[in-house]
Design a protein that fits this description.
The complex is a heterodimer of chains A (385) and B (104). Chain A has 385 residues and is mainly alpha-helical. Chain A has 22 helices and two strands. Chain B has 104 residues and is mainly alpha-helical. In chain B, strands 1-2 form a two-stranded parallel sheet. Chain B starts with a helix and ends in a 5-residue tail after the last helix. The chains are: A mainly alpha (385), B mainly alpha (104).
Chain lengths: 385, 104
């Protein structure tokens, strides 16, 4: 009787399980990392708060009782159905990212685009490892795409292939993007010599680019991607649409709006809505720990792939064109974090070594590469599963 | 049964009934269509209704050997595909620079 009264009076308190407490601790940790360590605060803070929100038993955020006594969807469920299930939120984020990207560094050193391909190796290596861990091919692909180091691409692919794993995949993707300065340096140091790290790179970093070229690039990329891999069109098309707004020169207000208001609003909604998948029942599983581990593996092998490809290229390139192998590691999408890390590593080895411009060019190539990789994964996995 | 009533009667959690053979879609139960005049409409309705259902995890094979072998194939084709894309983009940048040089 006493128990019944307690449960009636405080249903939330009576409904708490240790799994809920774990998830609230996870939420608090994400908030701590966002505020204290400034690890991707724009995403981790809403996700952390959302994790707390959806793990209070009988809370109305996910489902609520309407006046007629029927269960109805709560606000977060409505946001999920409208924004994540339909893929609208990640695609809007792509418009914002496109408006933020300046492709001109890439135009000055276009061959560095190739590193944007090589550094996607971690994605595919992780897909293979994830299948060994017992995940099916769709789940493995969703986990592997954490290696794209590109949050919206991870969300987009995971939502299509493994929506039940969306929460842990998003947390892993954004956490590791924030941890690039911690993950990349030891991997790079382990596979490069001091002499390689001190290599200087020359390049024409002030070459002017015509406006027509900058305008045509996003249009042509969209058309080519659409023809070769139609499944990648939504991802690449929205990214390039944002970039076209930026480069056309007549939509400055829209460009600024996409870079600021759109990015900020959708980021708030995206973060807290993803948290709706972070319920104790879905998140407190061994699978989550495996996904976190596999995500780290993906980032390590991205770095490995980029550096090794640079070493391979150096065998064939003439002396004046040789690439500092560290720059290969910037072929991931974490922009501009990865480029800054590599520049700082170069400076540590030799104060007169300025790698920022080639590193930025490679990093921009990585942004394209990650979206292309996401599109290819979407197209290829159903053929082999 | 008209197309509209078909939509109204089918919720995302129910298996839609269809007058025609299932064309390989296991989620659709075939029933005798007789001389159904709206055969084509029904097919379209079933397809769109199935697509509109709430997102559900796509189930792949759990056979580790098959998945591992498939993942290596995806790796080979995927990496090659990304490089092909990048080489095309590289060529495109070079071409754009040639066709549209900066005017002083």
């Amino acid at each position: 009787m006493g128990n019944f009264e307690f449960a009636s009076l405080f249903p939330a308190l009576a409904g708490f399980t240790w799994q809920h407490l774990v998830m609230i601790t996870v939420g608090a940790t994400l908030i701590f990392l966002a505020i204290k360590k400034e690890y991707e605060p724009t995403l981790l803070l809403p996700m952390g708060f959302g994790a707390i929100l959806v793990n209070i038993p009988f809370g109305s955020a996910l489902a609520q009782v309407d006046p007629s006594g029927q269960w109805a969807e709560g606000a977060l469920s409505v946001f999920f159905e409208a924004g994540i299930a339909t893929e609208v939120f990640p695609l809007l984020i792509f418009v914002a990212i496109g408006a933020m990207i300046d492709f001109s560094p890439l135009f000055r050193n276009p061959f560095l685009l190739l590193f944007g391909a090589a550094a996607q190796f971690g994605i595919f290596a992780t897909v293979a490892l994830a299948t060994v861990c017992g995940f099916d091919l769709y789940q493995a692909a969703s986990i592997g795409i954490i290696g794209a180091a590109d949050g919206p691409t991870s969300i987009f692919v995971a939502n299509k292939f493994a929506p039940d794993l969306l929460g842990p995949i998003s947390v892993a993707a954004y956490s590791y993007m924030a941890l690039v300065p911690i993950i990349q340096p030891p991997v790079i140091k382990a596979i490069t010599s001091k002499k390689e790290r001190r290599m200087k790179m020359t390049g024409n970093n002030s070459k002017p680019i015509s406006r027509t070229t900058m305008i045509l690039f996003p249009i042509l990329v969209t058309v080519i991607a659409g023809i070769i891999a139609p499944a990648s069109l939504a991802l690449i098309g929205f990214l390039m649409f944002g970039n076209l707004i930026r480069e056309c020169g007549v939509l400055n207000k829209l460009s600024l709006g996409a870079q600021n208001e759109l990015a900020n609003l959708v980021t708030i909604l995206l973060g807290i809505t993803i948290a709706s998948t972070m319920t104790a029942e879905r998140f407190v599983k061994t699978e989550t720990l495996m996904i976190i581990g596999l995500g780290l593996f993906a980032f390590i092998f991205d770095t490995f792939g980029g550096v090794m490809f640079a070493k391979l290229m150096n065998i064939f390139l003439p002396k004046h064109m040789k690439v500092n192998p560290m720059v290969g590691a910037c072929g991931i999408s974490a922009f501009p974090m990865s480029a800054r890390v590599i520049h700082n590593m170069g400076q540590k080895e030799d104060k007169t070594n300025f790698l920022l411009m080639p590193a930025i060019s490679t990093n921009v190539g990585g942004q394209i590469g990650s979206v292309v990789a996401g599109g290819l994964i979407l197209a290829l996995i159903p053929l082999f599963a | 049964m008209t197309t509209n009533t078909m939509i109204a009667e089918t919720t995302p959690n129910e298996t839609p009934k269809h007058c025609c053979p299932n064309n390989g879609n296991d989620s659709i139960q075939p029933v005798d269509h007789g001389n159904c005049p709206n055969h084509q409409q029904h097919q379209q309705t079933i397809t769109s209704t199935t697509k509109e259902a709430a997102p559900v995890a796509v189930k792949g094979s759990k056979d580790v050997n098959h998945n591992l072998s498939a993942s290596f194939q995806v790796m080979g084709i995927g990496m090659l595909g990304i490089f092909i894309f990048m080489v095309i983009f590289f060529g495109m940048i070079k071409l754009l620079e040639k066709v549209f040089p900066v005017k002083d």
